[in-house]
Design brief:
This protein is an alpha/beta fold. The chain is about 60% helix and about 15% strand. Strands 2-3-1-4-5 form a five-stranded parallel sheet, sandwiched between helices. It starts with a strand and ends with a helix. The relative contact order is 0.20. Bound molecules: BIS(adenosine)-5'-tetraphosphate. The site of BIS(adenosine)-5'-tetraphosphate has 27 residues, from helix 1, helix 2, helix 3, helix 6 and helix 9.
């Protein structure tokens, strides 16, 4: 079973993924975490990625797709993947379909965490106070939300038209939200 956890910055994708991997034994691929690990290790890729991330922009599709395919190749044994923060553009989604088709599998469900905009900003500002992330400050958060609406939000329609989008109310306690997600995922298995 392959899932996408989808939503705006700060919608709780990373938070809910942690619980999902425990419950369903899925392999977690967070493109944000992969990029941050390159930045922390000072790799050439990390240096390029940081230029985009610190300004609140997405990194180019081609680069992101190379990283993703490489990560999938490193783990051929997994029984399913939770894609967290990927895809973020229509070309990434189209490429992901092809990549999975080549591997004889597909996306089984897209879990869309829907959170009011004011709450997203509030969460990210709070996280910024402790995370030390270069993109968790007021100016970059506003840019990330603008980029989300322009480049990523159209994916909701992309997956709705393919019958795989499931809207989940993403405000409330972490456990309440997780319970709503499991109701959807348990029906897939
Ligand atoms: P990500 O790491 O994916 O960052 P995110 O969208 O901010 O995180 P997420 O939604 O997972 O929030 P979290 O659970 O932490 O991406 C970072 C950057 O990398 C992007 O801006 C982009 O530049 C680049 N990038 C990544 N993927 C890319 C791609 N595919 N293509 C191109 N570029 C890419 O939650 C946020 C906060 O809310 C936390 O502090 C959490 O504790 C809190 N929270 C969670 N659930 C809560 C709840 N129910 N109630 C209250 N608070 C809650």
């Amino acid at each position: 079973m392959n899932l996408i956890i989808f939503g705006a910055p700060g919608s709780g994708k990373g938070t809910q993924s942690e619980q999902l991997i425990q419950r369903y034994g899925l392999h977690h691929i967070s493109t944000g975490d992969l990029l941050r690990s390159h930045i922390a290790n000072g790799t050439e890729l990390g240096k390029v990625a940081n230029v985009f991330i610190s300004k609140g922009n997405l990194i180019p599709d081609e680069l992101m797709l190379d990283i993703l395919e490489n990560e999938l190749d490193l783990h051929p044994e997994v029984k399913g993947v939770i894609f967290d923060g990927f895809p973020r553009t229509i070309p990434q989604a189209e490429a992901l379909n092809k990549i999975l088709e080549k591997r004889g599998t597909k996306i089984h469900a897209v879990i869309g965490l829907e959170v009011p905009e004011a709450e997203l900003t509030d969460r990210l500002i709070k996280r910024g106070a402790i995370s030390g992330r270069s993109d968790d400050n007021a100016e970059t958060i506003a840019k990330r939300l603008e980029v989300y609406h322009r480049q990523t939000a159209p994916l909701k329609e992309f997956y709705t038209s393919r019958g795989s989008y499931h809207a989940i109310k993403g405000s409330g306690s972490v456990d309440e939200i997780f319970a709503s997600i499991t109701q959807v995922v348990d029906r897939i298995e």
